[in-house]
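We treat protein structure as text, and this decision shapes the records that our systems exchange. We quote a single record here, exactly as it is kept in our systems:
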Amino acid sequence: MAAKLFQLAHPQEDKERKGKTVNNSVHNAANNATGNVVILGGWEPAEPDFVAVNNRFEFFDASAGEFDQRLSDRTLRGAGLYGMASALGTAGVVHCGGATIRGGTEWDSRPECTLITTSGSVSDEIPDLPIALSHGSMIALSDFELLVIGGVSAVNEQAASGTVDAESTVCLLYTSDAADEG
């Protein structure tokens, strides 16, 4: 078996970044029911020697082999950093939770969820998580059920460095009828 490495052009029209690769880190990626890939959140380069939180998603059209630059709204409802994502049947890809940096090393977990449909548009058909959560895992159990496992539910007292003492033992079964409406 062989692997081929190739670079993907960045979708933004910003002249400084045009033609550069998507080099976000600590992001999520999930493919939807039509085979397209949604790359969500993470850190992104902002200037030399500096990174910023990316609260957006990028939509890679697998059939065209390129990012869809026609999408006007790529904003995640929650936080793009340390969130969880998974496909949700024919509805699209769901991103939930994440962390918002308040300043320095202080951050808060978030409960918001975003549904990115198979066409790449943002839908508010998905309810938020019942608790603020970041650093967890999400996996599809069916076309309308997601399992959210673990993570951190921290508000106002968490530092990005050091030991995390507010680990969650949460396991949420997230059921949505949005997959039927997709």
Remarks:
- Confidence is low (pLDDT under 50) at residues 4-21, 156-165.
- The CA atoms of residues 16 and 162 lie 35 Å apart.
- The helical segments are 178-181.
